[in-house]
Amino acid sequence: MRQFSFILIFISLISLTGCNSKSEPSNTTNDCNRPKYAIVIHGGAGTIKKENMTPEKEAAYKQKLNEALNTGEEILKTGGSAMDAVEATIQVMENSPLFNSGKGAVYTHEGTHELDASFMDGATLNAGAVGGVTIVKNPIRAARLVMTNSPHVLLTGSGADQFAIDQGLDTVPNTYFDTESRYKSLQKVLEKEKQGMGYLEEWPDYKYGTVGCVALDKNGNIAAGTSTGGMTNKRYNRIGDSPIIGAGTYANNQTCGVSCTGHGEYYIRYAVAHDLSAQLEYTNRSLEAAANEIIHHKLMKAGGSGGLIAIDKCGNIVMDFNTAGMYRGYAKPQERVVEIYKQK
Ligand code: ASP
């Protein structure tokens, strides 16, 4: 009998210390069928309708989304990290005039550009972000460097520009970010403003063009990043959700990685990115159900439009939005999807 009790105590101790014969990495669980890798991207949500799109424009967006996915997928396929995949993928979109990030960033009220970006490592919960940078060619790189090469999480304005210079990042004159189409958008919004609309008020054909990426690598590590020019006609050094960890971006290996796009003020107030992660942490909701609750219930009720992309620790992917469309796509081994409009 005494011998039996000893055995029982021994078994309990082993289970308490979490000792088992499986060699799973400590930051992952073995209760799901995680794919070797997964990557998801967005290029902004908004009033994106087929009837307003030319076939050429649609093809250009799809080509660029595929190019971005190819870049990240190649890194993940060959055993690279989720963080490297996110940074490289976002840079492809930042360098394209099609999206509201990097080249192609929207205009402020004064006709200049102020860019925001954030980056998060789900393995350590380390994060970095920049707000209102004006000369950094690829703000996502600056965000990652804030995380790795500074004791801070968020740097803004001229200080953030100086940090990027000190780190040896590529800088450009602010006019590098100019594009004709974004200039026209500013003129349209200024016109609406004259007619009495608030300077950041929702208007029916608003297109958010922020870019974002979430990746899951072979080690079960999740990373997320977001990069944007913010909202057309923004003033007073307005900063949206994109560089706010927990609002526009979040990553935690134990739950999920998230990147958002939409009317940033709502995403900040509802802590959208962290809300998704928290729902997975504290409830039994699936990733899809949690995203649905936020995008179609909480935000809709409040009047906040936009979307989000996310990957959970099991490699499940969600790309959800409450607008007419969202540039988006994902890749997993033997799987690739690139879409723009709402699926009927
Ligand atoms: N969320 C961004 C912001 O409010 C805008 C966007 O998603 O395009 O700054």
Write structural notes for this entry.
This protein is of the alpha+beta class and 344 residues long. It has helices at 2-16, 55-77, 82-94, 139-149, 157-166, 180-194, 264-269, 272-282, 287-302, and strands spanning 38-46, 115-121, 126-133, 154-156, 211-216, 222-228, 249-251, 256-262, 306-312, 317-321, 325-332, 335-341. Strand 5 (211-216) and strand 6 form a beta hairpin. The longest helix has 23 residues, at 55-77. The radius of gyration is 21 Å and the shape is globular. It binds aspartic acid.
List keywords for this structure.
Glutamine Phosphoribosylpyrophosphate, subunit 1, domain 1, binds aspartic acid, 9 helices, 344 residues, eight-stranded mixed β-sheet, single chain, four-stranded antiparallel β-sheet, alpha+beta, 35% helix, 22% strand, globular
Name the helix and strand elements from N-terminus to C-terminus, one letter apiece.
HEHHEEHEHHEEEEHHHEEEE
Rg, rounded, reads 21 Å
The residue-averaged pLDDT reads 90
CATH hierarchy, class: Alpha Beta
Q: Give the second-level CATH assignment, the architecture.
A: 4-Layer Sandwich
Helix content: 25-40%
What spatial order of strands do you see in the largest sheet?
4-3-2-6-5-1-11-12
N→C terminal distance: 67 Å
The tally of beta strands, per DSSP, is 12
Characterize the largest beta sheet: strand count, sense, and whether it forms a barrel.
8 strands, mixed
Which ions and ligands are bound to the chains? aspartic acid
Kindly estimate the percentage of residues that lie in beta strands according to DSSP: 15-25%
Which spans have pLDDT < 50 for at least 5 consecutive residues? 6-30
